Amino acid sequence: MAKQLTDITKDLNVKQIVGNVDVTITDVVADSRKATKGTLFVAVRGVAVDAHRFITQVVDAGAAAVVCEELPEQCNDSATYIVVPDSTVALAQVASAWYDYPSRHLKLVGVTGTNGKTTVATLLYELTQLLGYKAGLLSTVKNVVDRRETPAVQTTPDHLTLNRLLHEMVMAGCDYAFMEVSSHACVQRRIEGLEFAGAIFTNLTRDHLDFHKTVDNYIAAKKSFFDALPDTAFALVNSDDKVGSVMVQNTRASKHTYSLRTLADFKGRVIEDRLDGTTLDINGRELDVMFTGKFNAYNLLSVYGAAVLLGFPVDDVLVKMSLLVPVAGRFQTMRAPGGFTAIVDYAHTPDALVNVLDTIREVLRGKGHIITVCGCGGNRDAGKRPIMAHEAATRSDRVVLTSDNPRDEDPEEILRQMETGLDDTLRNRCLKISNRREAIRTACALAQPGDVVLVAGKGHEDYQEIKGVKHHFDDREVLQELFDN
Questions:
Q1: Positions in the chain whose pLDDT score sits under 50
Q2: Helix and strand numbers, DSSP H then E, in the chain
Q3: Cβ count near 140 (within 10 Å)
Q4: CA–CA separation, 270 vs 452, rounded Å?
Q5: How far apart are CA 64 and CA 78, in angstroms?
Q6: Rounded to an integer, what is the distance from CA 307 to the centroid of its chain?
Q7: What pLDDT, on a 0 to 100 scale, did the predictor assign at position 206?
Q8: What's the rounded Cα separation, in Å, for the pair 208 and 279?
């Protein structure tokens, strides 16, 4: 693929140009190591590295043009330099132009919030496919172009990868695309230049404060997504979450709500809850689904609302929703030979853990015990560690505190920090076993018929990250091995 420099930089807010603009570009890169002859290099100021340091290097490697916020001390006559106020925004605009503005050719819906993003985006993708339309998915678990899957590296990909995947969806004949929009992506302007048909807000609780520093900053990051929506889009928010109304204060999009507690455009009610499913009432229509818990009822309400707002017939949507199955690692149930049930869930925030444990407690109705395996990741918000331990111990009969991607931290120190959230009574319910495999084995050994073992925190992940190395580890595989032996 090749394009003229003027064609892919026409949307930029240009402050200065040095050199010839009549240049053919063969590739666009933001990684200096990928710069070759004919490429356009966009120098972005990252959190850890300022790519402006590598401008001379990429020009020496043959780059035909550079987009930057400030010129190097000496410009090379062999390259063209385009100076802009914000190279991160420029990268988004260039990426979109390079891939022929793919979001304009799709009905693109973004899902943001602390919990539920993966489930909602994935179920919308699956529902759309069941309704007979081609669709794409960009999620924490995987990226999908129609039915072709690739592993996901980030919740929301970088500018170039994101636009490339959307372009591939267009080329594959997709009509719709559904994507998770993380708070990091909002701050880092990764969704800049995309044209959304709709946005969904699930909920907001404490998370990512290692990055955002304050809850207000975290809220502002999510809200910026809705602020940027066009008047042709819809904004669908959970009105039972106190931040829901804040999200749409300044949006130009049409505003819609969903709720389990109050009047809303899409009103739901849980009629019956079981470990293997739920009977729901949605706007006066009864529906059996293969999902459990109020948190999933909220997820399904948002899926229903978005599908209706996209124009799908209500009756068709309800029929196909009954065929949807849980997303991998999201309240995924496994029946043990010993008569207890194991549940693998991605819950890695205090609120998500509370939701899952309260759901299990409600379904058990006092007829079984809850044994929870949980930990907290390293190099992340340390403030939630004692809260996680407290919530787990308060809502479980027994708890095994263990490792969850310790990364560069000492697992034992993470467990000590978690323990500070426990009083003597709660501490007596807990065991500390840093080896996650052994922790899961111990929890299963403690379980009696009718009990539930919740393995929380990693869900779909198939690795443990320790000292910069990812080791294969899948909670579901470990459980299955224990059941088979």
A1: 208, 212
A2: 17, 26
A3: 22
A4: 22
A5: 7
A6: 20
A7: 54
A8: 34
